[in-house]
Amino acid sequence: MNGTKKYFNSIGLIILLLVQFIAGCGEKSPNLSSTSTQTPVPTSTQTPVPTVPPVTNVQTPVAQEDANDPKIVRERFEQKLKEDIERISPKLKEKRSKTYSDQTYVYTAEYAGKQSFDIKKSDSIVSPYIAVARYYINWYANGKIVPGTMYIQANYAYQDGQWVFKDAMRFSEDKANTEPEIIAWANSLFQ
Fold first, then answer.
1. pLDDT tens, residue by residue, 84-113
2. Fewer beta carbons within 10 angstroms: which end of the chain, N or C?
3. pTM score, two decimals?
4. For residue 34, what are the contacts with CB-CB under 8 A and spacing of at least 6?
């Protein structure tokens, strides 16, 4: 029984030490004592650096351009007209020939320096605006000017802030020329 008693005494001693350790029994630091009257001594001799509040980066907001603003829509269309006039002008001068039962004709044309256009608001989400442009031309058959008013009418759609060419036809005296080869020719001018 004596051995068992020693065993339990040893266990009791271990438990007691653990309880004291967990309870925090031990020597306290003099700086942390509530009864201490000494002022703490700084451990460093460096001068403290004052804290400076961070500087906030203030940026002036940049006004974003509204691509669907009617003024911008019109400006962009006028720019598209200039680009397309430069594109079609040399192509109009290219000779094309067509043989009829009585004779073969060689056709050419030139931009007459005049255009008109109409821009309309549409109900489409994809194309909020559509436009029709007329590029007036002088039409020549075998080197002689063909009398009357002729123009290429092109249709455009405004998509993602840009004007996109859709299709074109040649008109003579406000009548559309519906011959497939003339329609193909008119569309090829804008490619």
1. 999 999 999 999 998 888 899 999 999 999
2. N
3. 0.66
4. none
Within 10 angstroms of residue 68's Cβ, the number of other Cβ atoms is: 12
User: In this structure, are residues 152 and 167 in contact, taking their beta carbons and an 8 Å threshold?
Assistant: no
Residues β-bridged to residue 107: 96, 141
Task: Report the range of poorest mean pLDDT among 22-36, 68-82, 160-174.
Answer: 22-36
Question: Which residue is it, tokens 């029709």?
Answer: 132
Partners of 69 in beta bridges = none
φ, ψ (nearest 5 deg) of residue 26: 160, -175
Helix (H, G, I), strand (E, B) or coil at 91: helix
State the DSSP code for 166.
Answer: E
State the Cα–Cα distance between residues 138 and 175, nearest whole angstrom: 16
